[in-house]
glycogenin glucosyltransferase (Oncorhynchus mykiss), 686 residues
Amino acid sequence: MVLGKSLRNHKTTRKLVVMIGPHVSDPCKGVLLKIFDEVLLVDVLDSGDSANLALMKRPDLGVTFTKLHCWTLTHYSKCVFMDADTLVVQNIDELFDREELSAAPDPGWPDCFNSGVFVFRPSNETYSKLLQYCAEHGSFDGGDQGVLNGFFGNWATADISKHLPFIYNLSSIAIYTYLPAFKQYGGNAKVVHFLGQTKPWSYTYDPKTKRVSGDMQETSTHTSFLQDWWFLYSSSVVPMMVEGYGDQPFHSGCVEVHLEFQSPVKENCDHHGHWPGSWSQINSHKEGGWKGSSSSHDSHHTEPYMSPETSEERKQKWEQGQADYMGMDSFDNIQKKLDAFLK
Amino acid sequence: MVLGKSLRNHKTTRKLVVMIGPHVSDPCKGVLLKIFDEVLLVDVLDSGDSANLALMKRPDLGVTFTKLHCWTLTHYSKCVFMDADTLVVQNIDELFDREELSAAPDPGWPDCFNSGVFVFRPSNETYSKLLQYCAEHGSFDGGDQGVLNGFFGNWATADISKHLPFIYNLSSIAIYTYLPAFKQYGGNAKVVHFLGQTKPWSYTYDPKTKRVSGDMQETSTHTSFLQDWWFLYSSSVVPMMVEGYGDQPFHSGCVEVHLEFQSPVKENCDHHGHWPGSWSQINSHKEGGWKGSSSSHDSHHTEPYMSPETSEERKQKWEQGQADYMGMDSFDNIQKKLDAFLK
């Protein structure tokens, strides 16, 4: 939602499409429809095609498969995929001048591209080849970034025009790794990517003081981007959520938001308008264009989608705003635990 | 010395040149002359040319200036510069097929190249322009990497052939940042660059067990490269040092090395054959070729060369194997402090 709003605010001329999983609540879908031109429901593990059945033998590639699905959006001629943990800070329509597969280098291993932002051409043929590649080679990092870097293996050496400048996918991790470079070049940032375990929605925000709180260790050097994210979320997205949820309670992540918006704060539903355990995509189109995003994506540590989780993994997901609100982490279950604890 | 030996072991056909500062001891120079084809003494802050005088107003660029000096080696037509904290693990003569300025991306800000390994063409004209650039723009990171990335500012966007594959400058930091990529591509490593505060010579080594000891936190994932470094150092460099130092004591960094080489271990002289507080270069040439290296270089945290040091800074330098063995950290001074402490 924040990414979509940031694209709108910077006056994109392209269509915006978001792809969501089955767990997204109806009020959230309503808000998404206000921001995006198209909301596509993706059933992550049951696409029903034979290629996918082959992949079903590799449940660890579930998330990966879902992201690759973007190549089937053949009613667009060219698209830009964007992860849900990205934020647009300048108009980026010029990305549609680039060819498949254009992407920015990953700061971890810079001969790989980061798959959080990339330009591609939807094509059923490419999609089939990608699935075949998945089945034959898997993913070297267990996620989509490994698959895509394997498939588009000549990115590092073939064509400089397919290297997007780093300012189109400015990983927050790079800011504190090489601060002087960020100070030199960061002012031209166009897209910020909140890589790492701590996402913007892991923090708490006070709309009155416009201050973000939480463990700021990782982000001490890029608080201004984090504040941009929260300002946009609290000022533009939360009011739509309040309207969408009506009498239903939801947790906004803002302190005292119940005073501001007359809505009680409870932990029983979709968190910040993100998509727990599933993912989403955003699409931009004019002559043909597309943007996508994934809230559960972390380029270096993608979790298998349906794997059995340990308590620690669940805690981590909860802290990343990916709690299983409909299952293990439902309001009823939490209420029971609290009651047991208070007895 | 280790870098030079690693180039020899991998049968480079090019000339090797090392550039050293004024603090390198005579026994060390003797060892260097056995490994390198040419040993060049560089007086870091008094080159005597007018361009340098202009730079003297910027003492913070001392180290930077020294590295740029490599462009004056016009008796070679093409060269490869290498930092002293690099280790060659495969023959890399093919780098001489590349043009100026070829370098590998920096994992911190991958639109910058890392200046630890780069291909260049010596030229007095380029040298003058570089000095002029220094005087006008300075360095955005206070070191040579900032200057060179400013001067060769179109590296990221102009010519893919000037992007050396990351395996030619595999920063140790990248290994643990994106371990799956290292596992996928690291097996082809040609040059390892021990970036970061902890250098190979910060550790201790037991030649009998072939084990490296010390704070392994940073290096837990690349101990094999660290062991390669130490095996080469202890088996090839230390014996030459023992011979070169004769009756003079020196500290090898190996435990019980005095039993193996009949040489007492004391902390009063040049450490591991590296060049305290100064730097060095290594040169490789056939039709014309050159390699250089700097022991005090850290691409992200280069210290001003002649700045007055705090106690903390001295401690850091000591821990990095850059103690001021002839001055503040001389054996006599340490003995005095120990005596005072033991009273």
Summary: Chain B has a mean pLDDT of 73. Chain B touches chain A at residues 104-112, 140-142, 146, 156-160, 163, 165-167, 173-174, 177-178, 180-185, 300 (CB under 8 Å).
